[in-house]
Amino acid sequence: QVHLVESGGGSVQSGGSLRLECSYAGVTDMTRCMGWFRQAPGKEREGVATIEQDDTTWYADSVKGRFTISRDNPKDTIYLQMSGLKPEDTAEYYCAAGYVSGYCPLETAPYTDWGQGTQVTVSS
Predict the structure, then answer these.
(1) Which of 41, 51, 64, 110 would bridge with 100, disulfide CB 3.0–4.6 Å?
(2) What helix, strand, coil percent values describe the chain, rounded to 5?
(3) Rounded to 5 degrees, what are φ and ψ at 57?
């Protein structure tokens, strides 16, 4: 069973930076895709960034050039480095894992395992 735990959220001012971490356990070679998603109040959960086993990455247009997803396999951790934060980045951020053939999509449906979330708040 896959277990995901996020950390690193907090409150920052516009233009600031944060690094989120997701420690995972139970992820096997069958889990091709891992990623970060977010959900703002009153909005649907959306994909932010995903990473494949070969470290190919995918980003939502809204975060390209500002966010970077990476992984540290020996530490069983994936990261989301966020810079140039904007108030519209305010949301609960979730780590997810799943087996998906082909590329790792930014849609939520293919991901079967989720963390509990960590809050990111960006003030103007």
Answers:
(1) 110
(2) 5, 50, 45
(3) -120, 155
If phi > 0 it is left, if psi is from -120 to 50 it is alpha, else beta; for residue 108 that is: alpha
Cα gap 5→116, rounded to integer Å: 7
Give the tens place of pLDDT for each residue, 49-66: 999 988 999 999 999 999
* Contacts within 8 Å (CB) and 24+ apart, 44-49: 45/94, 45/108, 46/106, 46/108, 47/105, 47/106, 47/107, 47/108, 48/80, 48/93, 48/106, 49/80, 49/106
95 pLDDT more than 80: yes
